[in-house]
Amino acid sequence: MEDNHYTEIDQYLQGVLSTEQRKAFESRLKNDADFASEVNLYQEIEQSLASRISNKEAEKELRNTLQQLQKEQFVSEKKPTKVIQLNRFRKYMIAASIAALIGLFVFNQGTTPTYEAFANHQNIELTVRGASNTKMQNAEEAFNNKDYITAIEYLDQVLAMQPTNIEIQLYKAIALLETNQFLEADNLLESISTEQSIFKNKATWYYALSMLKQSKLDACKNILKRLPKDAEDYNSAQKLLKKL
After folding, report:
1. How far is CA 37 from CA 13, 34, 92, 162, in A?
2. CA–CA dist 2, 4 (Å, integer)
3. How does pLDDT run across 67-76, given as a tens digit for each residue?
4. pTM value?
5. Dihedral Cα 147, 188, 49, 54, nearest 10 deg
6. 216 phi and psi, to 5 degrees?
7. Which domains, from first to last, does the chain contain?
8. H helices within 15-79, ranges in order?
9. Whose CA, among 25, 84, 135, 242, lies 20 to 30 Å from 92?
């Protein structure tokens, strides 16, 4: 296992890899099924932990623990039979190790609402019945199947042809948010939420959810208060405000 294996996964999900590093990472995701499964597992574990942690020091400690896992080798490269067994059960060992940590930090959860409780995405419809647009169809299918990494790839292809398409920008922002690429997601959501379009209020709602997912609760409150009463997500916003 590479020295920076889990660090690189974390950096990818946080959206801090360089363009070249990101392309190499995504190429490996496409061509290495075991690696893709490991990334998905890591992401699921991280999101589960994020919903339980409000203390920044606790989160920092957990990240350090995740990164430390890559350094703990139980077998050497001179023992190939055991390496094969370890590779087979590696993802389960990681899950078990991190699951054990959850119990140590559950007390931090309190009554703080979670992103997962409020982020209910509707299926998107990008293609008109009978129309032929492979990139649009692929983006729609990936997003609706919750394969957000693949969805981002196809949405980027659509945006290359339609860079001012605000609807596509919004769906990309949601996919970025789902993969914890907060910097790019927040930039898109903030931009859309300040423009006059039919997607303004929806972007504002998701911008607030991004703050919630990052445990930036004061920022979340301030953004929620920007939603007008006629917004589709106004009632949900009021429920969330009461819980914060």
Report:
1. 14, 5, 11, 32
2. 6
3. 565 555 444 4
4. 0.57
5. -160
6. -95, 75
7. 5-108 (no CATH), 115-243 (1.25.40.10)
8. 19-31, 33-50, 56-69
9. 25
